[in-house]
Amino acid sequence: MTGPAVEYSGESPRVAPSLPTPDEQADAAALIAKTQAQVDGFADTVRAIHVEAKGFGRDIAASAAAMRKDTLGEGIDEIARLTGAMLERVRQVEARLEVATRETEELRSALAVARGNARLDPLTELANRRAFDEAYAALMPGTSAVVAVCDVDHFKRVNDDFGHAVGDRVLKTIGHTLATECEGHLVARLGGEEFGILFVGVELDEARVLVERARGAVASRRLRLRSTDAFIGTITISAGIARTFAAERQEAGMARADAALYAAKRAGRDRVEIAP
């Protein structure tokens, strides 16, 4: 992908292109095609085995009829022929089952990859809103947890001044910073320039320290265009934090974190507020 790139001053890592490359798009299309082909192939194998099973029944019936004939005459030859035919059918079915088993395992792996991708944000490679909501909803009653909602301040300026490609890369950089500073906790891109962090098994003060550290790390970065070395400007985030309660719905906890986020925006941005 061509276009302006973003880099940090100092030792911070450069931001990789955020949009899928042609190779990544081709890989995704190949995965879909492979999965469909495996599903179709498995269905064909099952139908073939079903047909073979009917053939077994016919052969066994014919063999039983042959046994009732004179075993010293034509009957013994017919039994031998039918037995050989059934053994061949057994070998064929075993081969088909081996192939079907292997394809099933491949399909299971492919579907696991697809399922994982469905819970990833393609831009930042963080968890997406779906994964975040599932993790939040899966909290056991009585579990100590804190939710944080972070929003990039004045992000529209970045898009307007430098273009959406640079804006996307800035989002990827911020996501990487949040994930690094809050390592061990679920960091997700909720949509747009908004990120969520789910802290499980920690107290409110500890979660605030981590979010404050992440906020400071984002603000300390100096982002520049790699092509021209032009300074993009200081990028900051605001955040709202709320403790979760066992008796409340997920929407209530998120709403309190959102309210704290808006309070941080009103108080001047580049700050962290805790929900009352």
Question: How would you concisely characterize the structure shown here?
Answer:
The chain is of the alpha+beta class. The chain is built from 7 helices and 8 strands.
Structure description:
The chain has helices at about 20-65, 75-115, 130-135, 155-160, 165-180, 205-220, 250-265; strands at about 5-10, 145-150, 185-190, 195-200, 225, 230-235, 235-245, 270-275. The longest helix has about 45 residues, at about 20-65. β3 (about 185-190) and β4 (about 195-200) form a beta hairpin. The chain has about 280 residues and is of the alpha+beta class. α1 (about 20-65) runs antiparallel to α2. The protein has a five-stranded mixed sheet, sandwiched between helices. Strands 1-5-6 form a three-stranded antiparallel sheet, with helices on one face. About 60% of the residues lie in helices and about 15% in strands. The protein has seven helices and eight strands, in the order βαααβααββαβββαβ. The model is unreliable at about 1-5 and about 5-20 (pLDDT under 50).
